[in-house]
Each structure stands twice: as structure tokens, then as C-alpha cells.
């Protein structure tokens, strides 16, 4: 769905500029309006061309994962939790991590509770989706995003961003599964568990958003070393290579 055209003045322009009229804010609730304004502002100008020249060894990135009620946001499945960790080059900054549960209007299926440990009661006490998105995007800032099998996460993020703030994700997003397919084309499979095992990365806390993000970050660090051996020096080099893979 394309965002409806808006005029150059009024509420939507105020949101784009990071503010809202006081009367509207009082109706919506100031925190809600401010969260929307922040998210909309964050989505502007994220695809800066200069980041393509950043050496991968110096790239600031955020590796993230989501837990969800299912696999289909277009059919009502929703985000249950966000997990993320920050990296500088190939170094995982363990002290800079993010995790939150969020409320879901969709009931948590029994098999999802068994898989993730997230119960319906836990989500009912959690922050709203808008609050969770606001806090997650505050943690991400303008950094490049990294995720494993990122199509799933991108679809849910886009659905949530559109529903709460009428924007789409504009951050650059690197998929470690796509990297694995390029770096190891003869592998029989590219699931996260299999790739972690192949690199000797201990597996723990699977299907917890933060723990999955931390393990994926270690995998990204391994792939950085592989890419440097292939003379892939910058983010632009990587995009060029993947576009021809």
C-alpha cells in the first residue's frame, strides 16, 4: 500500500518535521504523537550514499531479530519481541544490546509459546507496539541493519511501521543468509543453527530475539573475515558482489 499523498502543511508535515500541533498531541496523547513523529523522522534520509564507502572493518551496524506470532503479517500475525546488539566492524559490543516484548492484538499460539517461551500474559503486560518500535529505532539510530533470513523481519517491521506511523523501513539491511549463499554456495542448507554449528558458535537461547541477534552477530563477524579475504573492503563492494551473485 502506498502512503497517501499529503499536503505540505498541517499534521503530517509536522510529523515529518519531528513535531505535532499541540491540539492534536493533546487528543492523541503527547507520548504517542511524539513517538510517531520520531519514527517518521528516523525514516528520512537513511540511505546515505557516503556509507557505501565505509570500510566493513569500521562499519557500525545493529544485528537484530524479531519473534512473531507466525509468518504472515499480511494475514494478521504480529511482532512479539525485538532483540538487537550493536557491532563496530567485527566486534560485538556486548554491553550495547536491546530487548523488549510488545503487546500483540493477535493471541499468542500455543506452539509459539512452546518455541519462544512468550506467553499471552507476558505480552499483555508489555509496552505497546508503538512504544517498542520507538525504543528499537532509538537504539538502531542511523546504523546499517543485519539479520538472518531478513525478508521475514523486514516484512514485519514494514507492517508495524506502516500501521503505527505510515512509513516504511528505509535503513540498509544486510542478510547473513544471503552472505552465506555467496560465501559457501555448495552448502546443503542455510538455516541459522546449521551455519552457527559450522562456525563453532555455541547455540543457546534459540528463538529468543536477543540471543538470536547475538549469535547472528557472531556469524556476521566470521563473514567479515571471509569477505576481507575476498578483497571486499567496503559496503559498496559487498552490494556490488551480492548483486552479481
TrEMBL record:
InterPro entries: DnaQ (IPR006054), Ribonucl_H (IPR013520), RNaseH-like_sf (IPR012337), RNaseH_sf (IPR036397)
Domain of life: Bacteria
Sorted UniProt keywords: Exonuclease, Hydrolase, Nuclease
Domain Exonuclease: 60-229
SUPFAM superfamilies: Ribonuclease H-like
Pfam family, one: RNase_T
NCBIfam families tied to this protein: dnaq, PRK07740.1
Protein name: 3'-5' exoribonuclease
Organism field: Paenibacillus cucumis (ex Kampfer et al. 2016)
Amino acid at each position: 500500500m502506498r502512503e497517501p499523498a499529503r499536503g505540505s502543511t498541517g499534521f503530517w508535515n509536522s510529523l515529518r518535521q519531528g513535531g505535532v500541533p499541540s491540539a492534536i498531541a493533546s487528543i492523541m496523547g503527547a507520548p504517542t504523537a511524539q513517538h510517531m513523529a520520531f519514527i517518521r523522522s528516523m525514516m528520512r534520509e537513511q540511505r546515505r550514499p557516503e556509507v557505501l564507502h565505509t570500510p566493513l572493518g569500521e562499519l557500525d551496524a545493529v544485528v537484530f531479530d524479531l519473534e512473531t506470532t507466525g509468518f504472515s503479517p499480511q494475514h494478521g500475525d504480529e511482532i512479539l519481541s525485538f532483540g538487537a546488539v550493536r557491532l563496530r566492524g567485527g566486534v560485538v559490543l556486548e554491553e550495547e544490546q536491546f530487548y523488549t516484548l510488545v503487546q500483540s492484538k493477535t493471541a499468542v499460539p500455543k506452539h509459539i509459546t512452546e518455541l519462544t517461551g512468550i506467553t499471552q500474559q507476558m505480552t499483555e503486560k508489555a509496552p505497546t507496539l508503538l512504544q517498542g518500535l520507538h525504543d528499537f529505532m532509538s537504539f538502531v539510530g542511523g546504523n546499517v541493519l543485519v539479520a538472518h533470513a531478513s525478508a521475514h523481519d523486514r516484512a514485519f517491521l514494514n507492517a508495524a511501521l506502516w500501521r503505527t506511523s505510515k512509513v516504511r523501513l528505509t535503513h540498509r539491511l544486510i542478510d547473513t543468509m544471503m552472505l552465506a549463499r555467496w560465501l559457501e554456495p555448495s552448502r546443503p542448507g542455510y538455516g541459522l543453527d546449521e551455519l552457527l554449528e559450522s562456525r563453532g558458535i555455541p547455540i543457546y537461547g534459540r528463538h529468543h530475539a536477543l540471543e538470536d541477534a547475538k549469535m547472528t552477530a557472531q556469524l556476521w563477524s566470521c563473514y567479515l573475515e571471509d569477505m576481507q579475504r575476498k578483497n571486499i573492503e567496503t559496503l559498496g563492494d559487498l552490494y556490488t558482489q551480492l548483486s552479481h551473485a
